[in-house]
Amino acid sequence: MNYENYKALCIKINYHMDLYYNKNTNEISDYEYDQLMQQLKQAEREHPEWVTSDSPSQKIGGSAKREAGVKVTHRVPMLSIEDVFNKTDVTAYVAKVKSVHPDAVFSVERKIDGLSMTLRYQHSDADGFLHLALAETRGDGHIGEDVTLNARVIPDVKEVIELPFEYLELRGEVYMSHDDFFKYNDSMEEQGKKPAANPRNLAAGTLRQLDPRITKERGLRMFIFNVQDGPAEFMASQTKALDTLREKGVPVVFHKKCATADEVLSIIDEIGSTRDGLDFDIDGAVVKIDQVAYRADFPAGAKYSAGHIAFKYPPEEKRVVMDEIEETVGRTGKIGFIGHISDEKTRKPVRLNGTNVSRVTLHNQDYIRENRIGIGGVYLLKKSGDIIPKISGTVKDPDHIFTVESDCPVCHHPLIKEEDTADYYCVNPSCPSQLVRTLSYFTSRGCMDIAGLGEKQVKNLIDAGLLKSFSDIYRLKDHRDGLIAAGIIGREKNTDKILAAIEASKQQGPVRLLTALGIRNVGGRTAQTLIDHFHSIDAVMNASKEELVEIPDVGETIADDIVSFFAEDDTKELVKELKDEGLLMEEAIEEKGASLEGLTIVVTGTLPTLSRNEAKELIEKNGGRCTGSVSKKTDYLVAGEAAGSKLTKARQLGIPVISEADLIAMAGR
Fold first, then answer.
1. Within 13 A of 101's CA, how many CA atoms are on the CB side?
2. With respect to CATH, is domain 3-57 assigned 3.90.1150.10?
3. Catalytic residue among 65, 111, 390, 646
């Protein structure tokens, strides 16, 4: 490898590190990332003069994000663990340690695939025990984020540990179970939103939420795997410290004490063989010198913890046959593709990483063509992040590569292909396959907010033949007695509550209604922009593409989606029916002040008296424009308490920073 290739590899790895640690996402598998790191380390062993402080081998990867909390400097650095990929390296490591300390023993532990968090406990004079004082994420290994409020709602984080120490610092791994992960993704799909890629990414995003209620709802868990600081006697033995913590009710990582290389390898095999039955992800086995005092004799550089190595298991792959390709229709009309697969040998669902897999997402027509997917083809299947099944290679081509039909597979309405993408859409709003999700979205909290009329009730009403379109919702009152008699949406009291909520929703206004119609790429913010400009559903419906693209934040793609949606005769009839049912289709046009006219203002942090929405309303009523991000086009930043990175960026750009009182004075209120 020459120097130019080495620098290109550094840039590539840094890019993937940023995705993984800071953006809670990934474009390559852990295995592929590990292979890149191995190439880098090999090059640096051969050319140590190339290594600089910004090399990926010298960094941990994460950078603290002020948006999710306050920065905290770690008392003890939260370092990574150096990976090994074969058992020969494990045996050599044990031999190296034994050559210096013949009495050394080892703790072999599961390596949980989540994100690290340190917990600081302080002695309380009230009861003489340790009480949780601070929780912090890893960040870059030296500076992380204060996530104490979120940590307190994780059941595995103990508020009190009944040990009589002055101070104790524990490090553990926060993770999400497969059950909670699938529950979250099912909810996202029901709402027509993008599901999470894997439990690790979702756990990271959940821990960094600003609202602890969201963290609590999503069900994070935690295992402690290290004592970072505390009484010397307590810290002397890794396994003894973990066993003591477990006795005190603290969930600790699975661990076994081993005296020889053979014992270490045996437990590594045991951990690997049992991972399929776990309800959470692991990505290896950690080997630690049990006697903590010995670890300093085996330094591993600035990035890695001394006295530790992590054995990484290779990803499991199976050969599968593509038996059938099913076309699906989502809430927005997007055509999806599900591959029905079976094990090449048994022709039954394939067993992969502990679960039976019979279906795999095929994404879009480009993906199908690039992977040469068709009925009868043989493919390699693996789990991305050990959880999401995906095609990783083609073994045998099919006789014919699958091609999407020109009509919707359900309603047979002609499909429309989105320009410059591989996606096809059914734009028929009455398509039966879209109906449950579409109607549930219409009634949801962010749209018409009809309490009690969720997906279950919507499905029951569709099955009963009472719901076929949005306007049918407003005719349910005509079927009150029948609904109660059949118990379709509950007993009398509950049915009347839902019918009252339906009636009240007529006054939600044109912004919510436009959002609820489910036009592709038109969410709440775009709907607000459109109604601010046109003031009514009818005016939006009759607008030309040329008129639409003139509106800020409405580009050609959104304009095309709006025009296509309202061009359908069924859509025009639907709008007429909703109008006839008495829904509010126009907004009252208020006289706007001009004191903030032409100004672009960003609001950040917690203001003394105004909520974020109230500040936005004040700005817009006085002719200003309120945006969500700071740029060179921003005229003022209104900063409240805990303003975060927007305040930093505003200062860097030289943008004036004002208070809530300044804003109110400028608005002339």
1. 19
2. no
3. 111
